[in-house]
Amino acid sequence: MNFVRSLPSSTALLTGAVVATASLSAQESPYDLEKSGWYVRTGAYIQSGLSLSVTRALPVPVITPGVYDDGFVQEDISQGAAGLTWNWGYLSETQLVDGTVEFHRVEGLATVPSLSGFGDDMLYGPEILVGFEFYHFQIKRHEARFGFELGFRYGTASGSAQGTVQSDVTLRTDRYDLGGVVPPLPPYVGFPDLAGPLISLTPQPQPTQSAIATTTLATSMQADFYTARFGAWMSVVLNEKWTVGVSAGLTSIYADGNAQFTETRRFDNAAFQPVTRTASNHNGDWLPGVYFQLRASYWFRPWIGAYVTAEWAHNGDMVIDGLEYQAMFDFGSTYGASAGVQFSF
């Protein structure tokens, strides 16, 4: 007698269901990767195309009568009445000469227009990304999956550069009669609408001198970049070991940077005073953009694998001002790659 036929009908049905379930389980697709929904990718990235540069933000000042390198003498609200003014200022006691105040101005000075060559344009660092499978479907005979991802990256960039220009310059010297006035101690600054000590408004030109000027601009830049990205992804299961995918979405970089500027002027004539100016500034800014990524994954087990990517991104730039210059971290269009491990849950 057949054993199954000897069982009650309900028992026979239950036995058949168990056997069918076991059979389906044994035949389950080995390509069932990333099936659980949530995953984490962690690794490192490298990004090429970041540009560091310095440009002059303001034009070389136009020579203004009565404005000097070490002070000024301008009309006050009386508009030159009696040939006197209280709208004047000076910097040093050495400018007081024989009852006059002496002013100097270097004319024809060239400045460094820009700096480049700050070094490697590569940005690299760690990354971590969390994703979730929202939907899966079939593309011909391959299973495809769709979802969303949220990722974070960190990187830093720094560099330094300097440039030099030479120019033929002249030193203009003018004196203004104090008229017996005892000047305030330097540094002193008068105002056009605030009464003060009156001096002559008429310059007394002195002999000019010539020299060759050497102007050098040196700049160092450093910034930290914190990148967040959110986008959609789709992957296709090729076989039990390989999947390929694409991601696209929005990216935003918070750039936090510093720049230090040093400008020096040297002359081959001792009558000209050398000048050194410095400025150090900080800025932080959000740089929004977009990204597109291609990805391939190799699975050691259904829950752990390795990935490699290639990507393109576009973001803005951050500017740090100093002296009359601007230091710029410019992302523009960048290209990169990343690699690491992926865990599915």
Strand content: over 45%
Number of helical elements? 1
Span between termini = 49 Å
Number of distinct beta strands: 19
Q: Based on CA inertia axes, which overall geometry fits?
A: elongated
Order of helices and strands: HEEEEEEEEEEEEEEEEEEE
Structural class: mainly beta
For the biggest β-sheet, the strand order reads 1-10-11-15-16-17-18-19
Largest sheet data? 8 strands, antiparallel, barrel
Radius of gyration over alpha carbons? 36 Å
Write a brief caption for the model.
The chain has 345 residues and is mainly beta.
Characterise this structure.
With 345 residues, the chain is mainly beta. The model is unreliable at 1-35 (pLDDT under 50). The chain has one helix at 9-26; strands at 38-48, 51-56, 67-68, 71-73, 84-85, 88-90, 96-97, 100-107, 114-115, 122-139, 142-177, 188-189, 199-200, 204-205, 209-237, 242-267, 275-301, 304-322, 325-344. The chain is 5% helix and 64% strand.
